[in-house]
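User: Fold this; tokens only.

Assistant: Input:
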Amino acid sequence: MISASEDIETFLRQHFAKRGGETRSLSPQLVEAMAYSLFSGGKRFRPNLCLQAAMAFGGQAQEAIPYAAAIELIHTYSLIHDDLPSMDNDDIRRGKPTNHKIFGEALALLAGDALLTEAFYIIAQSYSSRAQLSGPLVLCLSSAAGMSGMVGGQAMDMSLGAPLHSIEGALLTHRGKTAALIAAALEGAAVITQLNTSQIEVARCLGESLGIAFQVRDDLLDREMGSANSVLSYWSEGETNAYLDDLLKDAQEMVQTLPPGSEELLTFFSYNRERQI
């Protein structure tokens, strides 16, 4: 499957050229901070997965580009916030100083906030004439990004709230922090290509399984670090690899219920997983 990174990049740069011009008089530094992280060389895996899914489901990638771009904005905002001293306190991201190291903590926080809200502006504007898409897409992405998804998973990862010190807790953290946004990429593509209700749910479950598989594999790669929310705190390497095999088997079964050609998504995901998405 071909990469659609150029289409995503073109949309994002055109959008920011227009929106940045509209708002730059308010705070040019804010626009600069947003662009610094958004155009820092990310692989665009999540939006690419969304576009590949739209094509695999029988639709046109072009229709999914705005939604895919919105996913990338949310992913970027999460990285800015994750890097803050109050969170993971990282100085380097993708080989460059993190946002707060360049712009300060306050502006980095606001840049993340702005990227998050801009994601929903893009969906509302781009699908304004198609209410049957805009509402479900906002619901899908907000659920994946918020307290029941990515943010909730991050809170558990930081032991804020009620973490479960068990394999169930580790997998629940992975499901929220990593898998929710990947699931939203596939679910949104299914909505845009107007699959039926049961197929949309299968697409979401497929994305969740693939997202958990990625994070579990990451636990294996980082096993020396001994993170409290790593599955290796509770399972042996053999048990963990067996669980990964089960996830892949489930994914292979799920794609059989989706439109012909959907199995190519597994190839696309596996390729990107090896490149450390």
